Amino acid sequence: RAILTNPDLLSSTPWSRLLENDFWGTPLNDRGSHGSYRPLCVATFRLNHLLGGLEPWGYHLVNVALHAACTVLVVRVARKVLPGRNNLGHAITGFLFAAHPIHSEAVAGVVGRADLLACLLTLTAFLAYSAHCERTRSPFPLLLALVSSTLATLAKETGISSLALCLLWELCRGESSR
C-alpha cells in the first residue's frame, strides 16, 4: 500500500503533500491515518516511481545500496567506539551487521527503507557529532549532526534517538576524559 496505492508517489501530486500525509498517503488529520510521519522515505519512493514506475527491482536496488552504506558506517562507528586499532574486530562488526538475518526484512521488504534511511542518518549524525567533539573549531560537524538527526526523524520516527545517541556519547566521552 505504501507504493502501489500511495497518491504521494504520483507526479501529479504536489511535493508539499508529502509533508501533510502519513507514510501511506493518507492525510495526517484523517481518522484513518496510520500516523506514521515519514516524508523523507516517501520522497525516495516517489523518486523511485518517477525513474522506474512500479518495477520492483529499482526499489530493491536502492534498499540494498542503503544497507551497504549503513554497513560502511557501522564499521566507521566500530573504529570510533571499539578500543585500539583492531581492524579484524571492526571487520567482524561490519560483517555481522551486513549479514545478520534481522536486517533481511528491512532490506528485502521495500517499506523497510524507512529503517534503512533512519539507520544511515543516525550513524551519520553520530559520526559527525563525534567529529565535532574532537575538533570544535569548525561548526560543520555539529551542523551536519543536527541536519542528519532531523532527516533521520523525517525518515522514521525512531530517528529522534540519534540525539540520545549523541548525548550518550557526550556522557561517555566526558567520563573517559576525567
Overall description:
The chain folds into 2 domains: 54 residues, no CATH class; 123 residues, no CATH class. By secondary structure, the protein is an all-alpha fold. This is DUF1736 domain-containing protein.
Question: What's the SSE blueprint?
Answer:
Blueprint (H helix, E strand, L loop, with lengths): L38 H14 L3 H26 L5 H13 L4 H5 L4 H22 L5 H16 L5 H16 L2
InterPro entries: TMTC_O-mannosyltransferase
Organism: Heterotrigona itama
Protein name: DUF1736 domain-containing protein
> Looking at the chains present, what oligomeric state does this protein adopt?
single chain
Radius of gyration: 18 Å
Contiguous runs where pLDDT drops below 50 for at least 5 residues: none
Counting DSSP E segments of at least 2 residues, the number of strands comes to 0
Q: Strand content of the residues, in percent? A: under 5%
Q: What is the end-to-end distance? A: 52 Å
Q: Give, in order, the helices and strands.
A: HHHHHHH
- The helix content is 55-70%
Q: Per the principal axes of the C-alpha atoms, what is the gross shape?
A: globular
Tally of individual domains: 2
Biggest sheet character? none
Mean pLDDT: 92
How many helices does DSSP assign? Answer: 7
Helix/strand/pairing category: mainly alpha
Protein name: DUF1736 domain-containing protein
Organism: Heterotrigona itama
GO molecular function: mannosyltransferase activity
Question: What are the key terms here?
Answer:
mainly alpha, 63% helix, 7 helices, 2 domains, 178 residues
